[in-house]
Design brief:
CATH class: Alpha Beta
Radius of gyration: 18 Å
Order of helices and strands: EHEHEHEHEHEHHEHH
Shape: globular
Number of domains: 1
Bound molecules: NADP nicotinamide-adenine-dinucleotide phosphate
Oligomer: single chain
CATH topology: Rossmann fold
CATH superfamily: NAD(P)-binding Rossmann-like Domain
CATH architecture: 3-Layer(aba) Sandwich
Structural class: alpha/beta
Length: 256
Amino acid sequence: MHALVTGASGGLGQAFCEHLAEQGHDVVLVSRRTDELERTAAGLRERYGVQTVVLGADLSEESVRNDLAADLRARGIQVDVLVNNAGFGTIGDFVEADVDRMNDEVGLNCAAVVHLCRLLLPGMLERGRGSIVNVASTAAFQPIPTMAVYAATKAFVLSFTHALWEETRDTPVRVTAICPGPTDTPFFDSAGDDKVLSRRRTPQQVVASTFKALERRAPSVTDGLLNAVQGQVARHSPVRIAVPVARRVVRPTGRK
Ligand SMILES: NC(=O)c1ccc[n+]([C@@H]2O[C@H](COP(=O)([O-])OP(=O)(O)OC[C@H]3O[C@@H](n4cnc5c(N)ncnc54)[C@H](OP(=O)(O)O)[C@@H]3O)[C@@H](O)[C@H]2O)c1
């Protein structure tokens, strides 16, 4: 049984790979940095004796995603677990955002998730087994000034996953979204400010929450009790309160 993890070179992706390999899955590792993927793959083979396939791909591009699906078909790989984990955020005022990076953020965080589900879910339904995990975020629960695009992409992922959960509810395929809060990975460094939200959970905690949610067929889960409570408060607060609070909480460092 193959599991495909996107963003397998990053903090959460590596933890997903580790868990899936430990469960006996052969793992397909996808992202752009193949050297990092190869290193992770070698560790999985050594520790768990599973097979690994490394596929370098910039998933923000539609043609690359189609090539990836063709590559899987050519290799005879049937993906039974899809973890749509690759994603990144940008921090800063919207009017100053780099347009190309912003478009890649939407392409990767939203379009790639939808496209890979569309490419791989039909096979799971035909075979009568499979799981899809889409990585959203607690950023999905309220708009976040200075992370406006990122938060909106994660709201998209959560909404999309909930709909897909219902569409697959009477099938053997399981679909869930995980909403991690701040987690100890290179994410904030890549976003350009590693000092915001310094209280962080571990990738392993996020992965454990994810697979518990899949087991009980939950449409989504928030990792960590405190994140879950804060998320509920944010979701049910008026916009005029929730959004200014979010702005203060995620204020880029060095700003008043
Ligand atoms: N860390 C947090 O606090 C946190 C909280 C909530 C949600 N999340 C979500 O968790 C997921 C994983 O993030 P992380 O925390 O593990 O951060 P990370 O360590 O920065 O990992 C991001 C991963 O995405 C991959 N990626 C970036 N651009 C890509 C592209 N164009 N094509 C293919 N892969 C690409 C990166 O690989 P390459 O550079 O090799 O391409 C890397 O493997 C993301 O969806 C993020 O939004 C993170």
